[in-house]
Amino acid sequence: MNRQSLIKKFDKQAKKYIKRRQNNHAYKFRQRIFREAEGKVLEVSIGTGLNFPFYNKNIELTGIDFSHEMLKAAQNAARNYPFKTTFMHDDVESVEFSANSFDTIVSSGSLCAYQNPIHVLNNFQKWCKPEGKILLLEHGLSTNKMVGWIQKSFNPIMLKFAGCHQDRNITDIVKKSNLKIIQEERHFGGYLYLIWAKP
Fold it and tell me: What is the pLDDT of residue 27?
């Protein structure tokens, strides 16, 4: 799928993601991991700002997304929160940041859409300070064999209509990158991955 087609798919989904702010099915898991964000924070593929309620008021947040509609929704939502925010309309897979720019990097439901997720994670390694942290909340291949089979079977359809891979093993992807996993949790039958990592 070419990049412009993918961007259009996420532009069209912006209103659906705005509604998820009121009905955040992963609320307790987002709260558990993203409350640990501190200092200068980069949230990649920030979407509509689903994670804003869980951030410390003292952070400095930089949010990036390639979807103009998602980013516009996030900018509107940020007005209700005390932390300083900067937004960038750009593609995480091609954007450049200086080395050691951030104390924390947050990724939430975004590894499913990248053409090269390992490349993106290796960039996290560069962009994060050596003593910093990388916090991931991602969906991927379930540990339930039946659910996993369904995910693999329907992956081409979901990729076509939503621009999202359903069958990626997030743990394996992170292990193949330059990041070091500190802690991992799996929930919802192993479908939801919470990963604390560092450069």
Answer: 86
Q: What residue has token string 């989904």?
A: 13
Let me know: does 128 contact 105? Beta carbons within 8 Å. yes
Cβ atoms of residues 46 and 63 within 8 Å: yes
Residue among 96, 94, 89, 121 at smallest CA distance from 106: 121
User: How many domains, the chain?
Assistant: 1
Asked if residues 103 and 38 have their Cβ atoms less than 8 Å apart, the reply is yes
Q: E strands along 90-127, which residues?
A: 102-108
pLDDT digits 0-9 by tens, 123-171: 999 999 999 999 999 999 999 999 999 999 999 988 887 888 999 999 9
Among candidate residues 135, 139, 143, the one with its CA nearest the CA of residue 193: 139
Question: Which CATH number do you get for residue 171?
Answer: 3.40.50.150
70 contacts 11 by C-beta, under 8 angstroms: yes
End-to-end CA distance of the chain: 30
Phi, psi (rounded to 5 degrees) for 146:
-65, -45
Question: What's the predicted TM-score (pTM) here?
Answer: 0.89
Q: Is the confidence at residue 16, as pLDDT, over 80?
A: no
The sign of the CA dihedral 61, 77, 6, 179 is positive
Q: Residue 9: its pLDDT value, please? A: 55
